[in-house]
Design goal:
2 domains; alpha/beta; four-stranded antiparallel β-sheet; Aspartate Aminotransferase, domain 2; Aspartate Aminotransferase, domain 1; single chain
Length: 381
Amino acid sequence: MTTPRIYLSPPELTGNELGMLGAAIASGWIAPLGPHVDAFEAETARRVEMPHALALSSGTAALHLALLVLGVGRGDTVWTSTLTFAATSNAIAYTGAAPVFVDSDRASWNLDPGLVVDALDRAARTNTLPKALVGVDLYGQCADWEPIIAACRRHGVWIVEDAAEALGASYHGKPAGSLGDLATLSFNGNKIITTSGGGMLLGTHKAWLDRARHLATQAREPVRHYEHKDIGYNYRLSNLLAAVGRAQLADLDRRVEARRTIQARYVAALGSRPGWSFMPEASFGRATHWLSCAVIDSAAAGETRDDVIERLAAAEIEARPVWKPLHLQPAFSGAQTLGGEVAAQLFRDGICLPSGSSLTAADQDRVIAAIATTPALRRRA
């Protein structure tokens, strides 16, 4: 019998998606918009405690529009996390601005707040401040936002919170997605909730979201014929996908608890193994552990991160390296980087383990057993 494959973070259905989807089809509101889009925006805005929300086709689209409505363009710089997925820097590149990559801190793996504060002070003295800062809440954990926000406010730098991986997390009791001037979410298939593909832009000012809504619908002017004064984009979310998102959002709390439980079981089973250390949960917030991530010191463990990934693959278990830092990506070679050594080390040794909220205890035991019985660790034992 074929061993079923265990995936990293597969989509999970609540059971109510089909009913919501059927109701949307029966209503005749198929695309591009409709009542489920309006409701999904309102429900998400309430959940993350932001006054305004705009449902979009992807988290990348949300990032792009966030930068556009802040006036980011050619000749500007935008600072962002280096340890993240390329979508963050791609959106900066779409505007014509230049990304500046900022290293991680070890307490949260997110933007190093001390590095950001010092670098902004230096940039102010040389008149080289960025137009905006895009901070990423990595793997379900918020960055240490208070010192970053204070420094950005002091220097007049706009803040975009990329909370694509962190819906359901919190920072000092504030929800992820509520910590910037604008914030973005992703509902990609591997996220904690999914619309198969989709995203959300959230903001503190209605005028920003109105502008983003205009640009996201091909920038069509409100006249009888098709009139366009701006270059627009086809970035809106369909009513059908919004119906799926509403069913998923209603199940968010259970999914967060499931992933936190998965993380706790990994830490209990593997956290004391030689060379293994898990991504810490910083004291300033509550993480979702969207993905359970660890660092493997090969000298102490007797094997590398890649050895473990290959052995898990042989057991039909998907695992991946943590994000390759953007300052090491060929597409952004030559970009200015502040630090980078911490992120590079996390990439070299970091592993993401199966963490989907539908992962059963038996499946997680398979993952743990496959790690615990690798030859190198048997020899050490």
